[in-house]
Amino acid sequence: MSIQTLDTPEQLAAHIDALIAIEPRFAPVYEQVGLPNLRHNTGGFMQLMRAMVGQQLSVAAATSIWQRLLDTGLTTPSMIQHASDDALRAQGLSKQKIRYIRSLVAHDIDFASLKTLPDEEVINILTTVTGIGRWTAEMYLLFSLQRADILAVDDLAIKVAAMTLLDLPERPTPKRLHSLTQHWSPYRSTASLLLWSYYGQLRDKTAVPI
């Protein structure tokens, strides 16, 4: 099984054209939002740890805590293994977040090997870590491994944008959204990027939260 990735803006533009051929309702969305940013990152232990640190926190709070961890060198498996819970708590981590991060260290994931594994296998490996759910694993696939066919059906912004795009009477459940978008494959990462951009426009146009 070959691994399909989405690596460059030029490839993204080609995938958008292919997606619009399958789902023409994306054409006006593309006209409105333009070419989305691929938002790729390097992945690895620190990327997942930072995602854990940021869970259920404001961007400002998460950024502040992460900077404190960087300043004290507490962002590598070896440093965390040798640090006490009190030392981690002193940088702003909650008891729950410390448990999550220690679980990530304990699992000792071979991040390089993830690049060669199918999407579902990557999800299975990552979600064995306490504190990593399917959404976080899918974000890792999309932005760290550049996979081409990821639609995060649990994502609120994607559900809201898809509701408008598909003219649905209410926000779709993850199961319903998965069913409605199966035919977007193998371009579902492109659909995700367009839907996130579209959600941003929808939110900005409304006077009350969506």
Automatic annotation (TrEMBL):
<dbReference type="GO" id="GO:0008725">
    <property type="term" value="F:DNA-3-methyladenine glycosylase activity"/>
</dbReference>
<keyword id="KW-0234">DNA repair</keyword>
<dbReference type="InterPro" id="IPR011257">
    <property type="entry name" value="DNA_glycosylase"/>
</dbReference>
<feature type="domain" description="HhH-GPD">
    <location>
        <begin position="53"/>
        <end position="202"/>
    </location>
</feature>
<keyword id="KW-0227">DNA damage</keyword>
<protein>
    <recommendedName>
        <fullName>DNA-3-methyladenine glycosylase II</fullName>
        <ecNumber>3.2.2.21</ecNumber>
    </recommendedName>
</protein>
<dbReference type="GO" id="GO:0032131">
    <property type="term" value="F:alkylated DNA binding"/>
</dbReference>
<dbReference type="Pfam" id="PF00730">
    <property type="entry name" value="HhH-GPD"/>
</dbReference>
<dbReference type="GO" id="GO:0006307">
    <property type="term" value="P:DNA alkylation repair"/>
</dbReference>
<dbReference type="InterPro" id="IPR051912">
    <property type="entry name" value="Alkylbase_DNA_Glycosylase/TA"/>
</dbReference>
<dbReference type="GO" id="GO:0005737">
    <property type="term" value="C:cytoplasm"/>
</dbReference>
<dbReference type="GO" id="GO:0006285">
    <property type="term" value="P:base-excision repair, AP site formation"/>
</dbReference>
<dbReference type="GO" id="GO:0043916">
    <property type="term" value="F:DNA-7-methylguanine glycosylase activity"/>
</dbReference>
<dbReference type="InterPro" id="IPR003265">
    <property type="entry name" value="HhH-GPD_domain"/>
</dbReference>
<dbReference type="GO" id="GO:0032993">
    <property type="term" value="C:protein-DNA complex"/>
</dbReference>
